[in-house]
Specification:
The complex is a heterotetramer of chains A (262), B (345), C (382) and D (290). With 262 residues, chain A is of the alpha/beta class. In chain A, 42% of the residues lie in helices and 23% in strands. Chain A folds into two domains: 172 residues, Rossmann fold, CATH 3.40.50.300; 80 residues, no CATH class. Chain A has ten helices and ten strands. Chain B has a domain of 229 residues. Chain B has 345 residues and is mainly α. Chain D has a single domain, classed as ABC transporter involved in vitamin B12 uptake, BtuC (Orthogonal Bundle), CATH 1.10.3470. In chain D, 73% of the residues lie in helices and 2% in strands. Chain D is built from eleven helices and two strands; from the N terminus they run ααααββααααααα. In chain D, β1 and β2 form a beta hairpin. In chain D, α2 crosses α8, α2 packs across α9 and α5 packs antiparallel against α8. Classes of the chains: A alpha/beta (262), B mainly alpha (345), C alpha/beta (382), D mainly alpha (290).
Chain lengths: 262, 345, 382, 290
């Protein structure tokens, strides 16, 4: 059974077809990358999948369940989580509190218990904090736990978003340009983080511009251009696909890609 | 009495927890750290002030002004939960003050409901009203939310003004005294203690909430609704919840005001009162519990101090409000805390 | 810890404020809480000016029994809660021996318990009869009640053989209260109220309401209860629509400002008001004439503004207190109170006051004169 | 029928007033995202300034011009001394600053002018125009024409001039606007000045109908604020349409429902419209980028 399937997803903004009939299938436990030039519709596709906007056509299935019309919060409860290209950090919270919010769907106390701080809440807070600290450790931010989130560097904020998404224990994790703005060293760290996530059995869907990272970690790659599917295949297949090289990588990119293969 | 119950329960729980934890030093230290993390420690200076202030009071006038500070502190705290933590503006919160106030006025006079029960019913009624109007109103954002809440507050003020058979109309109506166990609550000093303790209870509950799953979710919504949603937070439901809680705080403050003054007019729910509450929250510091009290203190005490300036009173008041917001733009408590301690508040 | 410092700073500010508020004088203090700003400022302003002028005058003449008065005035902005706080301040901090003024009914009602508890005489300037009925031991008032205004208007209507009237009233405290009183006393006076309309105190167009009155069959006269800008707009719109019936206004517009605002539309409007407005037209035989002429001259000379009956109420209240204190021979609160209650035949701007244990106002209908506006001037209706 | 027509006339009279006051909000909002709660005080300053200059013997036309100029300077001063120093502050803080400014301006007016009510003579006399059994004052039409005139001017100004382009650029992205060389301070400052001037002109035009006093601006601004929300904030057309709609609603509510609850009816309709169109009748939808 596939972890995530999309069928004929389409959406238009003011007459422009941002995503136009895109379908794909993500097997469980792999890294599935979506690439394409700027404006190809990658982030919009993520928004369609995570319920932030609605497709005019087709549908989305999560682990075999039809989740087409569901709101983001309901999708989250079914095990879909994501990060954002334009950071969506809770900047008034501390680093660890950001991640604790990620645990929300696993927290069970009612509002009255919360107001009176019943022992159950204290117990649960301890559990949440522990799980959040663990998630922070996995992205290498364990030391920053008590700092204010607004004080972190850009690259760390990217990781904080990953930790926050991880804390919700998703089955499928959508990462939107996790390595944007990272230097090569940081990018390699992100790569290691992604490998670690997949190793735990989480399915990763990745949108990323850093081709080296994409080629290194992806099991399958889906290429978009102008909102449509251009190609899909393994890293090797995509690197040698003439249409992809033509439309996306360009001449220089083609030489690089060829070099990387050779 | 009913207002004191949560505090009693809270103390009991604390004691029980302490007992269970044993008295070993390391555990106590741990407990202290937990307390600190729960920010209850920020209430210690307020408790100290509550106890020390009466030593400086030379007359009932001081008690009354201080009682009003705590009273509006409760209302501002309620609004702060909505504005400072959940990031939702309300320009109509005085409407809930009105509901609370008229509940303790109308309940006993028109229906023979005992004042204490009317007090509770008023809070419940506010919660109900907030629940009903909250869902559609809270779908709006920013200025549109502002005008919708503004309209809501004005609607209530119009009702209180026009339904003279119940409310006495614009001239207002007398409020029967609150009598607990044959002991009529009167005198500014009595109200000082009632309101100070009520504020502290409200502050404890607010701090509890802030550091609970619900509270974290609300603060998350403030910063990014989108991120909160994809993490599984039902944003609409959480906003509604805090709107209701906030309404209850404000309603309780309204009930207290009616009982304290023994007389109310529809001004209590007027537009200007709503604006005053917002100003208290923003002046004191959005998202700061102590700030709610400081904001209330500023706007309650200033008019008393500014009588010095006679006809220039409003000129000076306007200058002070602008000056505070320009130079302490995060609000008095957070800005000063950052300047002095570098710590967060 | 930062929080603590902030809290300490806040406490220090509070303390400093408290110290500032301490008074330092040994004169006899009388207090006043007036709505000098806010929606009722047109009441509070002349009241404040009057009190200041006449306290100075009393002091210039050596005070009362050789003791000078110190006047302490606070502005409540028309807010009942603020009024109560300032009343507490007058009693607890300033230790006043009496209170003159509470400008509106709402603020006066909120202040009453403070003075009742402290046992300090309180002469209110509020309009409603609720202030003195039921009688409260320490509370008096000087303005005519709105019920009296209704009765005066109804009496004039009867004289003109008009019995069916429409009411239009402001939803402010004054307008609403008088409307209710008029409805209550109408049957006794043999008047039928055939239609009732409202308008908001800040509305700028009342033609819809007046159109409905115009369309109501059988109306013979229209009464407008309200104060502030509303009645001026009602009067203007009334003429705009060409409604043919006589228009009555209330004593709430008894100042020159109304005539100025309504312009030519004001001509023909009738209203009950104190003799003060027509001081110069009173016959020399009128016992009130010297009092109102003197007050009018003094007020207009000192302020440069036309006199209004609102300031007159403050004058009456202050003078009733002064006379009572003189009779009591001391500023003992209980004795002064007893003497205020025994005020007999005191001629003020509002009429002749005859107080008693059951009547803490002491004015009768004769205090009101029926005025008509002709060519932009008040004239007496005979 | 005559009755209905009279309600329409009343609605137009009141609606034109709301529209004229509302339109003053748009420019400042467009340039700075600030809803200026002191806008009502601009209206009051224009009116009271004219009245008192007139009392001092200045010919009314000149008095009006001077009052508008003074108010413009006050608008600039508000920007320079209160908004600029706090420009990094968030929206609610800025709103409280403008509320502080409104308290301050009212306080000043209370001392400089007086606390009474005042009026100004109507521009075209006060003989009502009769039509189909109903009447309307010529001044109502003056106010209406003023609102439309300023609306067209503002629209042309924002859509057709370089300054307007700068305002729109700043509204879209302040930092980017600065980067391409737009002096945001001058543009936003000019917006405050112009909004103040529009407010003052509104004050002078409506005073023959509404009368004026030192604290008369607050409630007018409240209705103006409601009107721009109904019309959609930031749109000059929205402000005028919203204002006139609100006026008509209140007049019909007063005529056919209950005068006591006419303000309530107005707000209920605004709420209903916002539930269907969360950004008002003419508001532009914004897309949040994630």
């Amino acid at each position: 059974m596939s972890a995530l399937s999309a069928e004929r997803l389409s959406v238009a903004f003011g007459g422009v077809r941002a995503v136009d009939g895109v379908s794909f299938d993500v097997a469980a436990g792999i890294v599935f990358s979506i690439i394409g030039p700027n404006g190809a519709g990658k982030t919009t596709l993520f928004n369609l999948i995570s319920g932030l906007c609605r497709s005019h056509d087709g549908g989305v299935w999560l682990c075999g369940e039809d989740v087409t019309a569901l709101a983001p919060e309901d999708l989250a409860r079914r095990g879909l989580s994501r990060t954002f290209q334009n950071l969506q950090i809770f900047s008034h919270l501390t680093v660890i509190e950001n991640v604790m919010v990620g645990r929300h769907r696993h927290e069970a106390t009612g509002i009255l218990a919360d107001l009176l701080h019943l022992p159950a809440v204290a117990r649960q807070n301890r559990g949440t904090r522990k799980a959040a600290a663990e998630a922070l450790g996995r992205v290498g931010l364990g030391d920053a736990a008590e700092r204010s989130a607004s004080g972190l560097a850009y690259g760390h904020l990217k990781r904080l978003e990953i930790a926050r998404a991880l804390a919700s224990e998703p089955k499928v994790l959508l990462l939107d340009e996790p390595a944007a703005g990272c230097n090569p060293v940081e990018t390699r760290e992100i790569e290691a983080i992604i490998r670690g996530i997949v190793a735990d059995g989480v399915t990763v869907v990745l949108v990323e511009h850093d081709m080296r990272l994409v080629m290194n970690v992806s099991d399958r790659i889906h290429v978009l251009a102008n909102g449509r599917t251009l190609a899909e295949g393994t890293a090797v297949e995509i690197r040698t696909n003439a249409a992809v090289i033509e439309a996306y990588l360009g001449v220089r990119g083609a030489r690089e890609a060829a070099g990387a293969v050779g | 009495m009913s207002m004191l119950a949560p505090l009693e329960r809270f103390r009991l729980l604390q004691r029980r927890r302490l007992a269970a934890a044993g008295a070993s030093k390391s555990i106590l230290l741990d407990r202290f750290r937990l307390l600190r993390r729960r920010r209850l420690i920020s209430l210690v200076p307020i408790v100290a002030i509550v106890i020390i202030l009466p030593l400086l009071f030379s007359s009932a006038y001081y008690y009354r002004v201080a009682a009003l500070v705590f009273l509006f502190g409760i209302a501002a705290l309620g609004l702060n939960l909505l504005m400072g933590f959940a990031g939702q503006v309300s320009l109509g919160h005085a409407g809930f003050m009105g509901i609370g106030a008229y509940a303790v006025a109308i309940g006993p006079t028109a229906f023979g409901i005992p004042p204490v029960l009317s007090f509770i019913l008023g809070a419940l009624l506010s919660a109900l009203v907030a629940f009903v109007v909250g869902r559609p109103i809270l779908r709006l954002k920013e200025h549109y939310l502002a005008v919708a809440t503004l309209g809501f507050g004005i609607l209530l003020a119009i009702v209180f003004t026009n339904e003279a058979n119940w409310t006495g109309g614009p001239d207002g109506m007398a409020v029967p005294q609150l009598i607990l166990f044959n002991w009529p609550l009167r005198g500014a000093a009595v109200w000082y203690w009632i309101l100070a303790v009520s504020f502290l209870v409200g502050a404890v509950i607010a701090l509890n909430l802030i550091n609970s799953p619900t509270g974290r979710a609300l603060r998350a919504i403030h910063d990014s609704e989108v991120a909160a949603r994809v993490l599984g937070i039902d944003v609409a439901q959480k906003k509604l919840m805090i709107f209701v809680i906030s309404a209850v705080y404000t309603s309780i403050a309204g009930s207290y005001l009616a009982l304290l003054d023994g007389y109310i007019t529809p001004q209590i729910s007027g537009f200007l009162r709503s604006i005053e509450l917002v100003a208290m929250v923003v002046l004191g510091g959005m998202g700061s519990v102590a700030g709610s009290l400081v904001g209330a203190a500023v706007l309650v005490i200033l008019p008393q101090a500014l009588t010095l300036f006679d006809e220039y009173e409003h000129v000076v008041l306007g200058l002070i409000v602008m000056g505070v917001m320009i130079f302490l733009r995060a609000g008095i408590v957070p800005s000063l805390a950052a300047a002095f301690g570098g710590g967060r508040s | 810890m930062a929080n603590f410092r902030v809290a300490a700073a806040f406490a220090a500010v509070g303390l400093a404020t408290a110290l500032l508020a301490c008074p330092a004088s040994a004169q006899v203090k009388i207090g006043s809480v007036l709505s000098v700003t806010g929606p009722a400022s047109f009441l509070g302003e002349p009241e404040k000016e009057t009190l200041k002028i006449y306290v100075d005058k009393i002091n210039a003449k050596g005070g009362i029994d050789g003791q000078k008065l110190q006047l302490i005035i606070y502005d409540d902005g028309g807010n009942a809660n603020a009024a109560r706080t300032f009343a507490t301040r007058l009693v607890e901090q300033d230790k006043v021996v009496a209170m003159v003024g509470g400008a509106t009914t709402g603020t006066s009602m909120a202040e009453i318990p403070v003075f009742q508890d402290a046992q300090i005489p309180f002469i209110s300037l509020g309009g409603s009869i609720r202030i003195i009925q039921p009688v409260k031991k320490w509370v008096f008032k000087t303005p005519h009640t709105d019920r009296m205004a209704c009765e005066k208007i109804f009496a004039d209507l009867k004289k003109r053989k008009l019995t069916k009237v429409a009411l239009i009233s402001g939803t402010d405290a004054f307008g609403k209260s008088m409307r209710d009183q008029c409805i209550a006393v109408a049957p006794k006076a043999g008047i039928t109220i055939v239609h009732v309309e409202n308008y908001g105190p800040h509305d700028s167009d009342m033609t819809p309401q007046l159109t409905k009155i115009k369309a109501t069959p059988g109306v013979q006269a229209v009464i407008n209860t309200g104060f502030g800008q509303g009645p001026a707009i009602v009067t203007r719109d009334y003429r705009q629509l060409g409604i043919p019936y006589p228009l009555y206004q209330s004593h709430g517009v008894a100042s020159k400002q109304f005539i100025k605002l309504a312009g030519p539309a004001a001509n023909g409007v009738r209203l009950p008001a104190a003799a003060l407005l027509v001081a110069d037209q009173l016959p020399d035989s009128d016992p009130q004439k010297p009092v109102v002429v003197a007050y009018k001259k003094t007020f207009e000379a000192k302020t440069g503004k036309p006199v209004s009956t609102f300031g007159g109420h403050a004058y009456d209240a202050l003078m009733i207190f002064a006379a009572a204190a003189k009779r009591a021979g001391s500023f003992d609160k209980a004795k002064v109170r007893d003497q205020i209650e025994k005020t007999k035949g005191f001629i003020g701007t509002g009429g002749t006051f005859n107080m008693s244990p059951t009547n803490h106002l002491g004015l009768d209908l004769s205090a009101f004169r029926m005025l008509e506006i002709k060519d932009g001037e008040w004239t007496l209706v005979h | 029928m005559a009755e209905f027509l009279q309600f329409v006339f009343s609605g137009i009279t009141v609606g034109a007033i709301y529209a004229l006051v509302a339109i003053g909000f748009t420019l400042i909002y467009n340039a700075s995202d600030v809803v200026n709660f002191a806008q009502g005080e601009f209206v009051m300053l224009g009116a009271m300034g004219t009245v008192f200059l007139g009392h001092a013997g200045v010919p009314l036309l000149l008095a009006g011009v001077v009052a508008v100029l003074i108010t413009t300077v006050v608008g600039l001063a508000l920007y320079r001394w209160a908004i600029v120093p706090a420009r990094e502050a968030d929206a609610v803080t800025l709103i409280i600053i403008t509320i502080g400014a409104s308290i301050f301006l009212r306080g000043v007016a209370e001392v400089v002018f007086d606390k009474g009510f005042h009026s100004l003579p109507a521009l075209l006399g006060s003989n009502p125009i009769r039509l189909g059994g109903a009447t309307i004052l010529p001044q109502s039409l003056v106010v209406l024409a003023g609102a439309f005139f300023i609306m067209v001017l503002l629209w042309a100004f924002i859509d057709r001039t370089l300054f307007g382009k700068a305002v729109r650029a700043i509204a879209a992205n302040r930092v980017a606007a600065r980067l391409v060389g737009i002096n945001t301070r001058i543009v936003v400052g000019a917006s405050f000045a112009l909004s103040a001037a529009i407010g003052a002109i509104a004050g002078i035009l409506i005073t023959p109908i509404t009368l004026t006093s030192y604290n008369g601006g607050t409630l007018l601004a409240l209705k103006g604020f409601a009107a721009i929300m109904l019309g959609g904030i930031g749109s000059a057309v929205g402000a005028v349409v919203g204002g006139i709609l609100l006026g008509l609603l209140e007049a019909f509510a007063a005529g056919y429902v209950s005068a006591s609850y006419k303000d309530a009816v107005g707000f209920l309709v605004i709420l209903a419209v916002l539930f269907v169109m969360p950004r008002g009748l003419f508001g532009k939808a914004t897309v949040e980028r994630v």
